[in-house]
Amino acid sequence: MDLIQPQREAPPSLTIFGPNPNFFLIFQNNPKRHQMPNKLNEQNTISISTSHPPNPTMVDASPQTLTPLPSPAAPSVAQPPPPPSPPKGFIAGLPRRPAVRVTSEYDSDTQLFLHKASCKLFEGFAKLKLSFQNNREGEISYPQIGFLTKYLSVLYDLEDRNALVKGSFDVGRLLQFKSTHDVKAQQGEAAVIASLGDPLYKLELVSTTPAEGLPRATFRFPHGEIMLEEKQEDEVKRVLSINGILKGQLMNGVCTAQYKDNDLNLRYCYKDEEMTFIPTISLPSNAVSFAFKRRFSPFDKLSYSYNLDSNYWNTVYKHTVGKDLKFKAGYDSEVRLGWASLWVGDEDGKAKTAPMKMKVQFMVQVPQDDIGSSMLMFRVKKRWDF
Fold first, then answer.
1. From the record, what ranges are coiled-coil (predicted)?
2. Contacts of 239 (CB under 8 A, 6+ apart)
3. Residue range 169-184, pLDDT digits in tens
4. CB atoms within 10 A of CB 246
5. Distance separating alpha carbons of residues 254 and 238, to the nearest angstrom
6. Is residue 25 a contact partner of residue 46, using CB atoms and an 8 Å limit?
7. Of 35, 77, 163, 316, which has the fewest Cβ atoms less than 10 A away?
8. CB contact at 8 A, 196 and 218
9. What is the pLDDT of residues 318-327, one digit of tens each?
10. Distance of alpha carbon 41 from alpha carbon 47, whole angstroms
């Protein structure tokens, strides 16, 4: 009679997969290793295989079975950005062409065109300028060419064949030298400006070249300036004159006293957000005048001035729409003329800030004594960048 041998349970196993999917370890444990220690097939065994691992979906999800781990991604090395390509000129191998700015202006009153062209050289170190005028027939006048840097500028008149040279340089932070020389006239000026410890206090000495008499001395301070100058009254006599300006706060305004050529001009200016009042008196002539300005809104302003000594007066009304549109109208009793003008573009600004880089002014002048001779004038200024 055959004995039925009890079925032996499969020993538990543990499978570990490494980072390489073709490499894994299998651990088997025999629960009866204490009974048959001499048999190798019943002891603990370690199997090493380099074959492909079994499909994880076909492995029994028992506590002793580990699913394969995804292989870690290789660390990425940041590649340095490519070097910037050198700027290409308008012709291969040549440096970039400098930007050229051209401004043309026409005034119908003088019927003249004024043209200006400029470009920066050596990466902004210097500037080359050209200007000339021409009439409606195309005749060119006053051609000039200039070379300007921070410390030296040369302006050459092609028609006169004359050059005006200006130069300046600093010695430290407190001393500056300036010079101007007219080559054809062989005359000029030399100046030295010294800051007296504070930039608000400066002493300037100016001498003509060739030297004639004492240099002109000007002392500037926060509340004005005083100037000493030697003047020649006749062929042999020279006198020392004193001119100066003093400013200071007085009540709610600013008082200014200006002394020049033995005349003293006293001026007081009161100004707030809506009104400006400026009375003026001149001595020893005792001429009195005043100016009055009234702002009705941020867009409307009226100015009026009256001279009590001559009874002349003038008035101006101004209306603005933004910064690029302005209308002005006024009357001057001294020349007996009424006028009105319209500005398209900032009146005090440059053409490059105006719409389409163009400024236009239209003006109508109406003489009081001859209305039939009224005139319509205009001025156009346009800038191009190449």
1. none
2. 230, 231, 232, 233
3. 999 889 999 999 999 9
4. 14
5. 36
6. yes
7. 77
8. no
9. 999 988 899 9
10. 12
